[in-house]
Amino acid sequence: MGRLDGKVIVLSAAAQGIGRAAAIAFAKEGALVTATDINGEKLKELEAFKGIRTKVVDVTKKDQVEALAKEHEHIDVLFNVAGFVHHGNILDCEEADWDFTMNVNVCSMYLMCKAFLPKMLEKKAGNIINMASVASSIKGVVNRCVYSTSKAAVIGLTKSIAADFIEQGIRCNCVCPGTVDTPSLRARIQAQPDPEQAYKDFMARQKTGRMCTAEEVAHLCVYLASDESAYVTGTEQIIDGGWRL
Questions:
Q1: Of all helices (H) and strands (E), which one includes residue 217?
Q2: Which GO terms fall under molecular function for this chain's record (predicted)?
Q3: Pairing status of strand 236-239 against strand 170-177
Q4: Residue 132 binned pLDDT confidence (cut-offs 50, 70, 90)
Q5: Which residues are catalytic?
Q6: Which of 108, 130, 171, 175 has its CA 20 to 30 A from that of 148?
Q7: C-alpha span between 77 and 84 (Å, rounded)
């Protein structure tokens, strides 16, 4: 039997990277997965995997999130993955950058949690996983001002939900990766004035000599989604190859 047999899981940002790897890992363990993203073309590729259905959803839009929630009679696991990485310090961050990052990285999770949590409370059972980062309240990182601020907020949101609803059968944890080799990271490297040097800079901070893979993060997410982690709530699950040390 799969570790997630029969569990209903909804996740965002599933078209590529960590979200895609997690959706596939969940399905392979027997879960019934609703994978969402704004990139419908890439998202459709997941339909090749048994147990995954896809839906184009902008999780920063309240009406779309609420419509998604109405499609689900119940839900076991909500995995909030959607995020955006802004490069720069506070002086490089315009108000529009700040607002956009907070909207994608924090407000989307607020909307998703608020829409799906009542369904969990009806069953007195539920599990929320939020994507945070080591670049947050865990570690100060150069040129990640608004990103780190947003991910620190995600950690705060996670702990708040865990504390407020622990007696109603709800668990809430967050995943805090270091540098993960994803299409998003590769695109950001290529967007730099000197991509080769940017890649070297990323590799220089990898104490293990390599980046994390999306599949490695997905393994952790499977654990958090499963009953194996039934006594785990309100935690920051760090997977960074020792970067924070």
A1: helix 214-225
A2: 3-hydroxybutyrate dehydrogenase activity; 4-oxoproline reductase activity
A3: parallel
A4: very high
A5: 147
A6: 171
A7: 22
